[in-house]
Amino acid sequence: MYKSELDKHIQNATISNNFVFFGESSFLIDRYTKIVTDVADASILSFYYDEYDFNSAKAHLSQGSLFGDRNVLIIKSDKKINKKELDVFVDYCDKNPDNIFVFAYYGSEHKTYINAFAKQSTLSVRFFHPKDFEAQNIIAQLAAEKKVTIDKYSISHLLQIHNEDIALACNELDKFVVYDRAVTTKDIDNLVFGLAEINIDEFIKKILNKKDFKEDLLSILERGEDEIRVVTAITSYLTQLYMFNIYIRVNGAPNALEILGYPAPQFIVDEKANLSIKIKPTLFYKLHELLLTSELKMKSADVDKSAILLSTLIRIQKLL
C-alpha cells in the first residue's frame, strides 16, 4: 500500500488499528505514526530501536485498562522484527479493536514488509520521498494546523532554502506561530537558517548518521569557525544525547524538562531521543574520550588543527 491509499482509509474512516510503516521517507513514517496514534487518554508504550522487548510489548497490548483507556504500542526500529512476533501484536489488535499497534521500520530492507501482511488486517504502507507538490501540500497542511498563514510561494521558498528537505522545512514553522499576519519570503530569509549556511547541529547530525560531511566542514571552516569550538560543540551535543539515552532506559520515554532543564519543541525531543537510543552507553564513553583527546591535541602549539579535526570526525563515524 502507498500513502495515497492510506489517506483514503483515514478520510473514509475505514482505517485499521495495526500498521507497519516503512520506506524511504523517515519524515512521513514519523508523521503518520503520530496521526494514527493520536488518541486521547491512551496508554502508550513506545520502544526506540534497541530498547524493543517482545514480552513487555506483548504484556502491554494484552492487558486490560483499568480506566477504559486504549492501549497503544509503538515500535521504532531500523532493524527487522521477526514476523511471528509482529503477528502476535496484530492478533491482539484483531481481538481488541481498542488496541493500536504501529511498527515504524526505518531500515532499508523494504521488500520484507511489502507483501508480508497481505492476508491480514494490517495496513502495510511504504512511504516514498514526497515530490515537490506533495511536499508543499504537507507543509501547507501543517501550517494550517499550527495556525500559520503562508502561501505556496513562501512554502516553495522555504523548501528551496533547505534543499527540498521537508523535515527541516516543517520544523521552521514553529518560528512563525507568533505571527498575526501572513508569512512572507522576507520573513523566511530573516529567520530561517538554511543549509546553504551550514547549521552546526545539522552538521553534527550528519556525522552521527554516517553521512558525507566534508563539504559542510569546509563551509564551516571557511566561515571562520574555530576547530576547537567545533569539537566542543560535538562533545556538548553527545552529552545531551547520553542524558536522553540514560533517561529513556530508566523511564521508557524522554522528558525534555527533566533532561535539559527547559521544555523543548516536540520534534527536537523526538529527534534527540531517536539519535540517542542508537548509541550504546559504552560507545558514548569512547566517543567522549576521543573528542577530549583531540581537543587537548588542538590546544598544543604548532599543530594542524584542521587535520586533527578531520581525522577525529572520520574516527567518530568508524566507531558508530
Q: Which descriptors apply to this entry?
A:
320 residues, 16 helices, 55% helix, Rossmann fold, alpha/beta, 5-stranded parallel sheet, Zinc Finger, Delta Prime, domain 3, 3 domains
Describe the structure.
This protein has 320 residues and is an alpha/beta fold. 55% of the residues lie in helices and 9% in strands. The chain is built from 16 helices and five strands. The chain is globular. The two termini are 33 Å apart. The model has no long low-confidence stretch (mean pLDDT 86).
Summarize this structure briefly:
The protein is an alpha/beta fold. It has 16 helices and five strands. It folds into three domains: 125 residues, Rossmann fold (3-Layer(aba) Sandwich), CATH 3.40.50.300; 60 residues; 120 residues, Zinc Finger, Delta Prime, domain 3, CATH 1.20.272.
Dominant shape: globular
**From the helix content, strand content and strand pairing, which structural class follows?**
alpha/beta
- The average pLDDT is 86
| Strand elements, count | 5
- Termini separation comes to 33 Å
Write the layout of secondary structure elements.
Blueprint: H1 3-11, E1 18-23, H2 26-36, E2 43-48, H3 54-62, E3 71-77, H4 83-95, E4 100-105, H5 111-114, E5 123-127, H6 132-145, H7 152-161, H8 166-171, H9 185-191, H10 200-208, H11 214-222, H12 227-251, H13 256-260, H14 266-276, H15 281-298, H16 305-319
Parallel strand pairs: 1-4, 1-5, 2-3, 3-4
Helix pairs in contact: 3-4, 6-7, 12-14, 12-15, 15-16
